């Protein structure tokens, strides 16, 4: 394939992906005759590349997404998609993403965490050129934790990049984030799979993607490793009930991937795509069941 043909091929893929994204209705009126579908993306650091594959599969299967709720890395991937509505662009961004794009280690002021988080916030500002959450094309919420009160905080308006930075601020690794009068850390501390948030926001069908399974890790050699492993265990434990509350649960086979392993992006995305494709019949069945029930209720009126 020569260079000109290669460029034409890339352009064609982009156009086709853009056309596919148009099947995702964001107009509230578009849900009048079908359920409002929410996609809930859980935390799991580098395992979050699986979310990209899941979104790609749902887009290809023409399954609508009317609301996205994300915790930690789920908030980052969710916001990227809520802005572009294009899984091809999302995948391109994910493939180019490296740890150095997100992690700014500092040992001069590491009292509350060795990673400042400013680089992550700058990355979001660069990739998503909107200031506030309300400007995204799909309704979106990032989940964080109030470090002082130990409560869940739902960030669904105001500065987008700061909200994602707060949602991703793994305690003991990232420094806490001051935002909207609170000191915030990673939402996975209290709610790593925020199904209830999606319900509270009016979702009829909740598709939840859990990437926290299998916490086994024998490669623990330093303080950051210890902290990450402890956090991973905590995240995994707090999703047990929430997994049951989803209408459709998607669990990509990424259990052997460490939280900070950015070397297996392709494999993790592929696992997400396969899991999304496998879940498509269950999602359609849930939507059809809702429509049948809703039709009977309307007829009874």
Structure description:
Helix content is 45%, strand content 13%. The protein has helices at residues 3-21, 49-60, 73-84, 87-96, 118-127, 160-167, 195-200, 223-237, 240-245, 265-300; strands at 37-41, 67-71, 140-146, 151-155, 177-179, 182-186, 205-209, 248-250. It starts with a helix and ends with a helix. It is of the alpha/beta class. Strands 1, 2, 3, 4, 5, 6, 7 and 8 form an eight-stranded mixed sheet that branches. It has ten helices and eight strands. The protein is globular.
Give the biggest beta sheet.
8 strands, mixed
Give the overall average pLDDT. 87
Q: Gap between N and C termini, in Å?
A: 62 Å
Task: List the total number of helices.
Answer: 10
- Find the count of extended strands (DSSP E, 2+ residues): 8
Radius of gyration: 19 Å
């Amino acid at each position: 394939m020569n260079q000109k043909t290669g460029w034409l091929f890339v352009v064609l893929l982009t156009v086709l992906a853009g056309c596919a994204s148009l099947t995702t209705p964001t107009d509230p009126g578009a849900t009048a005759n079908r359920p409002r579908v929410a996609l809930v993306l859980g935390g799991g650091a580098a395992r979050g590349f699986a979310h990209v594959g899941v979104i790609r599969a749902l887009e290809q299967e023409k399954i609508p997404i009317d609301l996205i709720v994300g915790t930690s890395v789920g908030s980052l991937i969710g916001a990227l998609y809520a802005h572009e509505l294009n899984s091809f662009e999302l995948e391109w961004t994910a493939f180019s993403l490296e740890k150095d794009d997100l992690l700014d280690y500092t040992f001069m002021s590491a009292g509350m965490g060795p990673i400042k988080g400013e680089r992550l916030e700058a990355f979001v500002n660069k990739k998503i050129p909107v200031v506030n959450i309300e400007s995204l094309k799909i309704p979106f919420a990032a989940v964080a934790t109030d470090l002082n009160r130990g409560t869940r905080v739902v960030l669904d308006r105001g500065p987008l990049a700061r909200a994602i930075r707060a949602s991703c601020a793994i305690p003991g690794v990232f420094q806490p984030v001051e935002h909207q009068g609170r000191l915030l850390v990673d939402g996975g501390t209290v709610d790593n799979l925020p199904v209830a948030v999606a319900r509270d926001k009016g979702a009829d069908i909740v598709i939840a993607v859990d990437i926290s399974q299998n916490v086994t890790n024998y490669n623990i050699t330093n303080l950051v490793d210890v902290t990450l492993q402890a956090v991973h265990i905590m995240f995994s434990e707090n999703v047990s009930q929430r997994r049951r509350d989803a209408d459709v649960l998607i669990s990509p086979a990424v259990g052997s991937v460490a939280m900070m392993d950015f070397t297996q992006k392709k494999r993790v995305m592929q696992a997400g795509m396969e899991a999304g494709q496998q879940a498509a019949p269950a999602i359609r069945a849930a939507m059809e069941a809702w429509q049948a029930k809703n039709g009977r209720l309307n007829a009874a009126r």
